[in-house]
Amino acid sequence: MSDTEHLGRGRTSSAISNGVVQIMHEYTGRGPTKARTTISGDSVLIVLGDTLSKGEKTLAAKGEGAAVLSMRHSYQQAMSQDMIAIVEKHVDRKVIAFMSTNHIDPDLAAEVFVLEPLPASEQTEEIEEIPAPE
């Protein structure tokens, strides 16, 4: 990857991170304080840190972690279309799958977007085919 391509991908990753943090803030009243977006082939991965509110941390400390994770899952479902739109805007490709999960300790979240494959003529990375187990 050339320096120019690397710089462009870095700007795209930053824009996606910032957009997702802003969306999470709008929906939850508080956004994560850490975000890192990785773009590779047909996928975009965002790892977020320090996502839980003070109330969620208190609930988790009192043994209600499952309730916190359930509520976070509901938020993620509600935010999914807005987050997909951010990714599609910045990578200029269609998202065909979105997966999301949270972890309480450490306080992390992962947002995974699978992109529609590029036509073979536009692919720059080799796709590794993994055979199904027999």
Please render the helix and strand layout as text:
Blueprint: H1 3-28, E1 34-40, E2 43-49, H2 54-61, H3 65-91, E3 95-103, E4 108-115
Antiparallel strand pairs: 1-2, 2-4, 3-4
Helix pairs in contact: 1-3, 2-3
Summarize the structure.
The chain is α+β, with helices and mostly antiparallel strands. It is 46% helix and 23% strand.
Overview of the molecule:
- The chain is α+β, with helices and mostly antiparallel strands and 134 residues long.
- Helix content is 46%, strand content 23%.
- The protein has three helices and four strands, in the order H-E-E-H-H-E-E.
- The protein has helices spanning 3-28, 54-61, 65-91, and strands at 34-40, 43-49, 95-103, 108-115.
- The protein has a four-stranded antiparallel sheet with strand order 1-2-4-3, with helices on one face.
- A hairpin with a 2-residue loop joins strand 1 (34-40) and strand 2 (43-49).
- It is globular, with a radius of gyration of 17 Å.
- Residues 1-7 have low confidence and may be disordered.
Report the major sheet: 4 strands, antiparallel
Alpha-carbon distance between the two ends: 37 Å
Shape call = globular
In percent terms, what proportion of residues is strand? 15-25%
Mean pLDDT: 89
The number of helical segments is 3
Derived structural class: alpha+beta
Q: What strand line-up does the widest sheet have?
A: 1-2-4-3
Keyphrases for this structure?
globular; 4 strands; disordered N terminus; alpha+beta; 134 residues; 3 helices
